[in-house]
Amino acid sequence: MTDLKLKLDSTLLLSPSETMVGCLKTHPVNYSLPQPFYTDQHCFDVEMKQIFQKEWLFVGLTCEIPAKGNYISQQIGSNPIMIVRGDQGQVRAFHNVCRHRGSKLCQAKQGKVAKLVCPYHQWTYELDGTLLYAGGEMGSDFDKSKFGLHPINCKTAGGYIYVSLSDNPINIDAYFDDLARYLEPYDLDNAKVAVENTILEEANWKLVIENNRECYHCDGSHPELLSFMLEWDDTEDPRSSDEFRAQVAAKQALWEAEKIPYEHVSHGHGLRNRIVRMPLKEGAVAMTVDGHAACSKLMGRIKNPDLGSMRILHLPNSWSHAQSDHLVVFQVRPVGPLLTEVTTKWVVRKDAVEGLDYNIDRLTYVWNATNTQDRILAENNQRGVNSMAYQPGPYSETFEFGVINFIDWFSDAMQKNIAAEKYCG
Ligand code: FES
Ligand SMILES: [Fe+2]
User: Fold this and answer.
1) In the chain, where does the domain assigned CATH 3.90.380.10 lie?
2) How many CA atoms does the CB half-sphere of 323 hold within 13 Å?
3) Which contacts of 218-227 are long-range, i.e. CB under 8 A and separated by 24 or more positions?
4) What pLDDT score was predicted for residue 2?
């Protein structure tokens, strides 16, 4: 058994976060994490606090809240949040928690309201979070202005919405600027979610991300995906061939002429916030079973269907494939140490008509199949990691550099965030 195994016994003097930092500092480079990082409730709680309550998280798309009063609500660990479109079109995020006695305010995952009304005692808030009405007698010294909803840092970029539960979040504006520039051709304000699907995976969230960050497993598991996808993220990939590099160069010349962004950009630690456009296999223009478009109307200002896939990675919780006719957007939500929700959204032009311009089964077929295959892989991974026989194993630098990169980022973010908390008392 590994000597790195954490002892999170409550009798120890070290807190779980100190124990985790000690473990990450001495963890062998390029090895998977010790078992408790994938199984233990204490570790999970520390990760939720240090990663999911501090880092910027992808939470949805502006086109999901197109008009004043539209909202979406989500759960980030134990924190219900909501994102609301305001009177002047502003996108704001709040803790979805009533300031009276704390009831969860908006119950539905999505909706449209004139005001935000708590279902418990009907305290009523404006769309900007200010308290408008507190029913009954609250006393003459009750000051409504002190009981607005708690705001959450929220930014939009190119139609993507991000929040950070931290009061003082890390600055990733350079990524947001690039994201806005790369998403501009898609005009996501005039798009819609054609369909979405949420699956529950009985696996730790890091195993879900690790599985996403490598295609070492693709040959054995993803026949549909590999019918059109080149697994390489860029021409620097150690496995990329001369033929692949020539194909990329030829496509890039066309994209350049059409002012379609394609260069690899990344911000922050490693590939933490990364965007790159890669061609699909020659002849394929979309991630469909036959490689043909899934929607007859192309996104935004796009004229050339052959834009490959623009791959957007945002750790810790999202990745996307933007094609000429639709986008596939993924969001990961940890539920518990052994349970993770993964939501997939398929996005098309707002004026595309189901049954005429696109068909849901065809649009979703490949990624539904791939998601199921990935869920089974992650769950099998978890079952083995739960075993007394599990010990950290080596990642391949050639095939699993994306996983190495994720674990490096995770380790770095955990250590920095925990240290900053101590420094600030
Ligand atoms: S808890 Fe919301 S009105 Fe009472
Ligand atoms: Fe996969």
Assistant:
1) 173-385
2) 27
3) 221/373, 221/374, 221/377, 222/370, 222/373, 224/289, 224/365, 224/366, 224/369, 224/370, 225/287, 225/366, 225/370, 227/281, 227/284, 227/289, 227/291
4) 42
pLDDT tens string 147-177 = 999 999 999 999 999 999 999 999 999 999 9
Nearest residue (by CA) to ligand 1, atom 4, is 121
Structure tokens at 419: 């240290």
Residue 101 Cβ < 6 Å to ligand 1 = yes
Say how many Å lie between the CA of residue 413 and the centre of ligand 1: 36
Q: Find out whether the beta carbon of 422 lies less than 6 Å from any atom of ligand 1.
A: no
pLDDT at position 7: 52
Q: According to CATH, what is the number of the domain 57-164?
A: 2.102.10.10
pLDDT at 127 over 90: yes
121 lines ligand 1 (CB under 6 A): yes
Tokens (6 digits) for 28: 């062998």
Q: Which of 48-62, 126-140, 354-368 has the lowest mean pLDDT?
A: 126-140
Q: Of all protein residues, whose CA lies closest to atom 3 belonging to ligand 1?
A: 121
Q: Are 347 and 329 in contact (CB under 8 A)?
A: yes
pLDDT tens for 34-47 read: 999 999 999 999 99
According to CATH, the topology of domain 173-385 is Naphthalene 1,2-dioxygenase Alpha Subunit; Chain A, domain 1 (3.90.380)
Shortest-distance atom of ligand 1 to CA 102: 1
Average pLDDT over residues 286-305: 97
